[in-house]
Design a protein that fits this description.
By secondary structure, the protein is an alpha/beta fold. The protein has helices spanning 2-13, 18-25, 102-110, 144-154, 178-187, 198-201, 210-215, 230-242, 286-292; strands at 35-43, 48-55, 67-74, 77-84, 94-98, 116-119, 135-140, 163-169, 191-197, 223-227, 249-252, 266-271, 276-281, 310-320, 326-327, 333-335, 339-347. The chain is globular.
Length: 349
């Protein structure tokens, strides 16, 4: 019946499809791109903002800890970034954004109720275990956002929950969700929260087990989730490996782990369709070079996961910054978010 009505409506809306007219009255209606409308905006700190949005047709409910690609138009250009969903599973999605970088700063400081986001479905394997198990959460900075979704999902629903959260923040003022965590831990004895203010106490030392032994003596028996800066993740990965417990650790990275730059690499990048040439070193990604040059570059996760940034290599060589692999075959699809010039190269962009 719906398809019959749309075909009938098309007689009056031709040559535009009916959905183009429907979207004038309902911003969530789109046959081509999933959308969401901002329903609430609240400040968490001076630099961090939580944004709730009501998704339209096609959105799949998220699992606690997952992330989604969010698109927003800035100066007439649609920019995509990936953000962890901080709301509990089963609730309308929220993202908590800290102002760092062009897109995150725009979202944190300029988003208003009624604004429209462009969306991609939730994804990610940084999720709660399937059965009851004591948990340890190690987070720092904005790395607490996916873990907050887990805590909001698990703690109110399970009386047998046993969670230790160790969260690091540079200052007390910049620590996210402090009041809410204090209230949750006061009401639920299964949640134990430890804040580490690094400007006063220094960072947690994961080069040995001493800090963990003092804060959470039974950490070896817990399923552990870690999310934060790259050096923290690398140190945790090494520590759990040395303790012969790698299967007990789940890591969520906001940035791709890259190899050291190779001296003497880099070159001239030619963006053929944009008719631009840019000199680049061997450590800056093709995506960053193109964006800095004002070229419209497709992107999503910016970590080599979603493959939204795939761009044909027309000639020359590029280097995968994660593995060091050189790509030089004409027509290769290059992930620009994790590749850099390894000599002169031409891209179909």
């Amino acid at each position: 019946m719906k398809s019959v009505a749309l075909r009938a409506a098309a007689v009056f809306t031709h040559p535009a499809p009916p959905h183009d007219f429907i979207s004038l009255f309902n911003p969530l209606s789109s046959a081509r791109q999933m959308r969401g409308v901002v329903s609430a905006v609240r400040a968490e700190t001076t630099q961090s903002t939580t944004i709730a949005f009501r998704p339209g047709q096609g959105w799949s409910p998220h699992d606690a800890g997952q992330w989604a690609r969010i698109g927003v138009e800035i100066d007439g250009v649609r920019q995509w970034r990936s953000y962890s969903l901080s709301a509990a599973a089963g609730q309308d999605p929220e993202i908590t954004v800290t102002a760092c970088g062009k897109v995150s700063s725009h979202l944190a400081h300029h988003t208003r109720v009624g604004d429209v986001f462009f969306l991609a479905p939730p994804q990610g394997d940084f999720v709660l275990p399937s059965g009851p198990r004591p948990l340890l959460m190690l987070t720092a900075g904005s790395g607490i956002t996916p873990v907050m979704s887990m805590i909001r999902t698990l703690i109110p629903r399970r009386n047998d929950a046993d969670v230790v959260l160790l969260h690091s923040a540079r200052t007390r003022e910049s620590a996210l969700f402090c009041d809410e965590l204090a209230n949750l831990s006061a009401r639920h004895p299964g949640l134990h929260v430890v804040h580490r203010i690094t400007s006063e106490q220094g960072r947690i030392d994961l080069s040995s087990t001493a800090d963990l032994d003092a804060i959470c003596p039974d950490w070896r028996s817990r399923k552990t989730y870690v999310c934060g800066p790259t050096d923290m993740l690398d140190a945790a990965t090494q520590l759990w490996h040395d303790a012969d417990l790698p299967e007990s650790l789940t890591v969520e990275r906001f940035a791709v782990a890259t190899l050291p730059a190779v001296p003497g690499t880099g070159g001239r990048i030619t963006f053929e369709r944009s008719d631009r040439e840019v000199e680049s070193d061997g450590a800056t990604t093709l995506l960053e070079v193109g964006e800095e040059a004002g070229i419209l570059m497709p992107s999503g996760c910016r970590m080599g996961i979603c493959r939204t940034c795939l761009t044909p290599l027309l000639s020359g060589q590029v280097r995968d910054l994660r593995t060091g692999e050189i790509h030089s075959n004409e027509g290769d699809l290059i992930q620009t978010c994790i590749s850099a010039a390894a000599g002169d190269c031409h891209l179909d962009r």
